[in-house]
Amino acid sequence: MKVSTSFLSSNYSLVDTINYLEHSSTDFIHVDFMDNTFVPYKSCSLKELEVLQNTKKDLDVHLMVNDPLKYLAFFSKLNTRYITFPYEAVNNHLEIIDKIKKANIKVGIALNPETSVNCLIPFLDLIDLVLIMSVEPGRGGQTFIPTTPAKIAELRNLSNRVLISVDGGINKDTIKLVATDIVVSGSYICCSDNFEERIKSLRDS
Q1: pLDDT tens sequence across 146-176
Q2: Per the residue annotation, which of 16, 27, 32, 98 is the catalytic one?
Q3: 35: which DSSP letter?
Q4: 98 is catalytic
């Protein structure tokens, strides 16, 4: 299981948080980007995210926006491994998948808690990753939704090929409830005084 660390909620400045993650054992830096369209929140601006230009960590980008392609050029210039967009936000899923792949970036689709995994059946052979939201998207520090493990199991029954990631309320206790390839954890790590200790606690759980 790999750990992707989100800096959406942190006790430290953006620059310091990225620096701490850069020198940690996290597998990915998870970038939650919001522009006040799909969710009623805004994250760091693109200008602020230029701090990621020199990171050697692979980026796991979650675009919580209504127009993912608007931001493809920016994130394709960074060390981006995955770009994930929300199923519920768009109608042109195939176009988005195609253009992200043409940018030589792996593509994922995120599902809100109330969305059935069955909607992904037409896309499971085309994408690399599914991000199961275990909280409502857009705000850090929420409580893990207890129906998430059943949803993960249902998705795994549909596909053994696609990677499964889970995002929201992940800590040393809730991680025991999920069987995924990647876990996204934010405030549990970045609101602590020891990032590495928290990352290792997830791996050891």
Answers
A1: 999 999 999 999 999 999 999 999 999 999 9
A2: 32
A3: B
A4: no
